[in-house]
Design goal:
Blueprint (H helix, E strand, L loop, with lengths): L1 E4 L1 H8 L3 H8 L3 H8 L8 H11 L3 H4 E4 L3
Antiparallel strand pairs: 1-2
Helix pairs in contact: 2-3
Pfam families: HTH_26
Protein name: XRE family transcriptional regulator
GO molecular function: DNA binding
């Protein structure tokens, strides 16, 4: 089982830079980079809500579940 992070795709669709998003939601660019690459063990709902609010999307647009074969 794996959670796929599609944040970079959504940011590209909205033409939003990492610097712009990080500043808007109040996290560092380094932490945003880790989140985009799926290198975090968790994400706060508050952070996820801020991302979705800024990008005008749903959590499911950013996160996907991949079942093992």
């Amino acid at each position: 089982m794996e959670i796929i992070v599609n944040l970079d795709v959504m940011m590209a669709m909205r033409k939003v830079s990492s610097k712009e998003l990080a500043k808007a939601i109040g996290i560092t660019e380094a932490n945003l980079s880790l989140l985009k690459r799926g290198k975090v063990k968790g994400v706060r709902f508050e952070t996820l809500a801020a991302i979705c609010n800024y990008l005008e999307c749903q959590p499911g647009d950013i996160l996907a579940f991949k079942k093992d074969a």
